[in-house]
């Protein structure tokens, strides 16, 4: 049997407050980059749970997703390592909550609030082209209800074996 190709499933949060967007500055294999709070879907969690967890881990802020901005697919080839990965990214928007006093996730240098103009000005250092695309889609008012997503109960069952 041949290996089955599988994209990496990720989540991201576009969070806007008073004309500024919450981003993270992070260390990557290609240097320091800007991204939305984002990360990989973990076993035993829904997409919504993943984006809540990732936002808290990377920004120390609570996040309540209220809508899906988009589902994006992109391919990334690291210039340094030549690693080739296809990402399937689910991007949410919602309400930012309390900021906690806690360390940020490994590799995250800081969380910061940036204007649209600042995001556009630094696009050469974005983690992915989806950073600006997601903000543009948010500003265009693109929203899908969370009811579009369904997580079957089997996802939360610990595998036997």
Describe what you observe in this structure:
- 18% of the residues lie in helices and 43% in strands.
- The chain has 161 residues and is of the alpha+beta class.
- The protein has a single domain (8-149), classed as Alpha-Beta Complex (Nucleoside Triphosphate Pyrophosphohydrolase).
- It has a five-stranded mixed beta sheet, sandwiched between helices. Strands 2, 3, 4 and 8 form a four-stranded antiparallel beta sheet that branches.
- A hairpin with a 2-residue loop joins strand 2 (16-17) and strand 3 (20-28).
- It is globular.
CATH hierarchy class name: Alpha Beta
Please report which band the strand proportion falls in: under 5%, 5-15%, 15-25%, 25-35%, 35-45% or over 45%.
35-45%
Largest sheet: 5 strands, mixed
Class of secondary structure makeup: alpha+beta
The residue fraction in helices comes out at 10-25%
DSSP strand tally? 9
CATH superfamily: Nucleoside Triphosphate Pyrophosphohydrolase
Give the low-pLDDT segments: none
CATH architecture: Alpha-Beta Complex
Radius of gyration: 16 Å
Look at the structure and give the mean pLDDT: 95
Query: Going across the major beta sheet, what is the strand order?
Result: 5-1-7-6-9
| Number of helical elements | 3
Shape: globular
The CATH topology name reads: Nucleoside Triphosphate Pyrophosphohydrolase
Number of domains: 1
End-to-end distance: 22 Å
Order of helices and strands: EEEEEHEEEHHE
């Amino acid at each position: 049997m041949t290996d089955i190709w599988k994209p990496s499933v990720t989540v991201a949060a576009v969070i806007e407050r008073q004309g500024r967007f919450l981003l993270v500055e992070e260390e990557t294999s290609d240097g320091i980059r800007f991204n939305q709070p984002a990360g990989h879907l973990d076993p035993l969690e829904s997409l919504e749970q993943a984006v809540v967890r990732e936002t808290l881990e990377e920004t120390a802020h609570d996040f309540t997703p209220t809508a899906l901005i988009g589902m994006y697919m992109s391919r990334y080839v690291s210039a340094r390592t030549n690693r080739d990965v296809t990402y399937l990214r689910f991007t949410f928007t919602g309400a930012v909550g309390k900021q906690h006093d806690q360390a940020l996730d490994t590799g995250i240098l800081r969380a910061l609030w940036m204007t649209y103009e600042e995001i556009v000005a630094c696009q050469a250092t974005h983690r992915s082209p989806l950073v600006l695309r997601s903000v543009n889609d948010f500003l265009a008012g693109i929203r899908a209800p969370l009811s579009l997503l369904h997580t079957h109960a089997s996802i939360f069952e610990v595998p036997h074996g």
